[in-house]
Amino acid sequence: MLFRAFHRQIGPATDSQALTAELGSTDRGEDEGAGGKDTDSEGKTLGKLSVLRTVTRLHINARPELQGPQCVARRTYSISTETSDQLFVAVEESSCVCMQCCGPARSCSLQGFDKNADCVFWFERPLRAEMCWLGCCLMEIRAYTPEREFIGTVHQRWSMFTPYFEVCDSEGISAVRIQGSYCNTRCLSEQELQVVSTIGESVGRIWKRWPGYKEECNMDHEYFGLDVPQGMNLNTKVLLLAATFLLNHMFFEMS
Predict the structure, then answer these.
(1) Total tally of structural domains belonging to the chain
(2) What is the phi/psi pair of residue 75, to 5°?
(3) How far apart are CA 204 and CA 104, in angstroms?
(4) Residue 142, phi then psi, degrees to nearest 5
(5) In this structure, are residues 154 and 172 in contact, taking their beta carbons and an 8 Å threshold?
(6) Which of 24, 54, 118, 222 has its CA 20 to 30 A from that of 132?
(7) Residue 173: CA count within 13 A, CB half-sphere
(8) Over the chain, what is the mean pLDDT?
(9) Which domain holds residue 152?
(10) How remote is the C-alpha of 149 from its chain's centroid?
(11) Model confidence over 18-52: pLDDT tens digits?
(12) Dist CA 88 CA 38 (whole Å)
């Protein structure tokens, strides 16, 4: 099962096909017929991401990493609800060179799997510069359905002192914005960035919390999440989930 596979802490040497094969060992019968197909307002098939329609808070935890120098090109995250019901597992794929040399600016892909080992989303982040004062080469992340249909993009917009991001659909139309304070630094144990509508009304937040010290592994940046209203458009929720991973790379993670 997906949850069993996650708690076994699949080693970083495991490739994505092996991960999918192990996750696929669960019985698919109980959710067939009930899962169905769901589409957004643009007709894209969002499949089992429709479970996010009733979700108001998502908790994301990364699998602990061992202490000391190492090269981990793959990271695994658990995505669960406020009541600790695990919804998905996300697998981040990068390279050792990019991870070590580019750090928060690294290019990577994130695939999300449900408890039946079915891919439910695909996020891609291109290589960008860490600090761009001239407004070029700013950070972004793109969201796709499992069938590689384009959902939208989260763009970093140029700003002088405070973080500013724009969440755009596949047509480039802005849905919501993400704004941070001037003091967003990695060393802070707790952080928040506000999700605001196009008219400036606060509609959610992306946050980081310190989960407590763990002597045996790095857990300094491994607990973050997203708060959104229940009635928010599903397409926008998926894009905000992608934005949460992007902001974790840029502002939250410490190692």
Answers:
(1) 1
(2) -125, 145
(3) 24
(4) -115, 140
(5) no
(6) 222
(7) 5
(8) 76
(9) 2-27+36-252
(10) 18
(11) 444 444 444 444 444 333 445 555 445 577 888 89
(12) 17
Q: Tell me: the pLDDT tens digits for 194-211? A: 999 988 899 999 998 876
How crowded is residue 60: how many other Cβ atoms within 10 Å of its Cβ? Answer: 20
Q: Which ranges in the chain belong to alpha helices (H)?
A: 2-7, 16-23, 96-102, 234-247
Among all chains, which residue has been given the structure tokens 């941070």? 180
Q: Please give the average per-residue pLDDT across 67-96, as a whole number.
A: 81
CATH number at residue 217: 3.20.90
- CB-based contact 157:166 (threshold 8 Å): yes
Q: What percentage of the chain has pLDDT greater than the value 90?
A: 37
Q: Which amino acid would we find at residue 178?
A: I
Identity of the residue numbered 170? S
Quick check: 140 and 126 in contact, CB under 8 A?
yes
Q: Is 118 helix (H, G, I), strand (E, B) or coil?
A: coil
Q: Which long-range contacts (CB under 8 A, 24 or more apart) does 190-194 make?
A: 191/251, 191/252, 193/163, 193/247, 193/251
Closest listed residue to residue 250, CA positions, set 161, 142, 129: 129
CB 19 within 8 A of CB 37: no
